[in-house]
Amino acid sequence: MLKFYYNTGPNPMKVALFLEEADLAYEAIPLDTRKGEQHESGYLAINPNAKAPTLVDGEAVIFDSNAILQYLGEKTGKFMTGDTPEERATLLSWLMFVASGIGPYSGQAVHFKVYAPEEFPYALNRYDFEAKRHFRILDERLGKQPYMLGANYTLVDMAVWGWARIMPRVIGAEAADEMRNVNRLVDEINARPAVDRVQELLAEHAFKTEMDAESHRHMFPGNTRLTS
Ligand SMILES: N[C@@H](CCC(=O)N[C@@H](CS)C(=O)NCC(=O)O)C(=O)O
Predict the structure, then answer these.
(1) Mean pLDDT of the residues in the chain
(2) Is any atom of ligand 1 closer than 6 Å to the C-beta of 162?
(3) 217-219-222 Cα angle (round to 5)
(4) What is the DSSP annotation of 183-226?
(5) Ligand 1 atom closest to 66 (CA)
(6) So what's the pLDDT on residue 228?
(7) What's domain 2-78+195-227's architecture?
(8) Torsion angle, CA of 64/19/201/219, rounded to 10 degrees?
(9) pTM over 0.90
(10) What's the CATH architecture for 85-191?
(11) Which residue has the least CA distance to atom 5 on ligand 1?
């Protein structure tokens, strides 16, 4: 059976959505990153990046959420696009746009807004600007067609959903409100039964919720360089 290491963050959630949408049997293994479980040697052996998610499929070990989505799409043939060069190129472009743009800029936007030890106007402005710019590109595309790749719901929409569902936290409520087409997609996906099952999965395990000094130590290990 598939083993799915997860926490409640946007990257694991997009994989949880695929697993539920495709009705795959899997064992869900919580990884409490606020308690430092990502740094344990057993986990580092399967994910040297010390982040969630990771998927283990027999001998195959795969980390990085968008790689996992592509792996599962290819494995199951579900929620994929057609296999002409043009369709494949479009899928890869938008999947990587989420992986290398939406995800990192959103993550850093939240980091500097919520977690940085002091206010850095330059970093705040850059990541907020870039996160908004990236979401606007999605919004424009989704204004022309129902889903990221056209007429059908695919794993790229799931990748988008992972981050877009927390857009107000990333770019603020007002800017998030303006992303009407992205919100339309998020609302539509949220209404799917698979999302109810993702919520049930989240209710199964009590992850640590406090973002205290221990959590900061585990999640932002680079901060120790500022004090030593
Ligand atoms: N590029 C990775 C990023 C994974 C990532 O940042 N995961 C977050 C949850 S969304 C995490 O595990 N954070 C805990 C930590 O940074 O210690 C992916 O897409 O899977």
Answers:
(1) 97
(2) no
(3) 65
(4) HHHHHHHHTSHHHHHHHHHHHHS-------HHHHHHH-GGGHHH
(5) 19
(6) 64
(7) 3-Layer(aba) Sandwich (3.40)
(8) 0
(9) yes
(10) Up-down Bundle (1.20)
(11) 51
